Amino acid sequence: MKLGVMPFVDRMSDPDWAAEFARAVEASPAESIWTYEHVALPDAYESVYPYDSSGKMSAAQLDEDRPDPLLWLQHIAAHTNRVRLGTGLMVLPLHNPLTLAKRLATLDRLSKGRVIAGFGIGWLAEEYAALSVPFSERGRRADEYLRILRSV
Q1: Three-state SS string across 46-65, please?
Q2: End-to-end alpha-carbon separation of the chain, Å?
Q3: Where are the domains of the chain?
Q4: Contact assessment for residue 26 and residue 18, using Cβ atoms and an 8 Å cutoff
Q5: d(C-alpha 112, C-alpha 37), whole Å
Q6: CA distance 42 to 61
């Protein structure tokens, strides 16, 4: 079994805390550090949050400061040498696949091959609307983007 660690989001934007966290995980038996993404979280939404019986995220979750996952992992990479760096997950259809491929490849190269890229299609229609990406096409886009990422 391999052990991965994901920090509480509310501390992630503090660079000193993030560096200390990274060094602590590096010194532990854990294999990886993980983060996830929401590009935009609206204050009000109609979509059903699938991870709580209420169908809504908590107010605390909506107020959390979520850094860009790849930039955050870049900071973590600078303070570690061994642990793998994972996105669990990025909302793939919200990204340009060529730009994302370049960002992932750069992080992987600078971290000496430690990146684990995890993707999903998301659940929040309002997040898609904020980025002018059709929610109904997210599955098709994800399939196409995965083909592009693999080819480049």
Answers
A1: CCCCCCCCCCCCCHHHHHCC
A2: 31
A3: 4-38+45-151
A4: no
A5: 23
A6: 11
- Residue 142 phi/psi, 5-degree rounding, is -60, -45
- Please name the amino acid found at residue 9: V
88 in Cβ contact with 34 (< 8 Å): yes
Q: Which CATH class is domain 4-38+45-151?
A: alpha beta
Render pLDDT for 96-121 as a digit per residue (tens, 0 to 9).
999 999 999 999 999 999 999 999 99
**What region does 109 belong to: left with phi over 0, alpha with psi -120 to 50, or beta?**
alpha
What pTM was estimated for this model as a whole?
Answer: 0.92
Q: Could you identify the residue written with the tokens 């805390």?
A: 17
Rounded CA-CA distance 93/17 in Å is 31
CA atoms lying within 13 Å on the CB side of residue 69: 25
Residues 65, 35 contacting (CB under 8 angstroms):
no
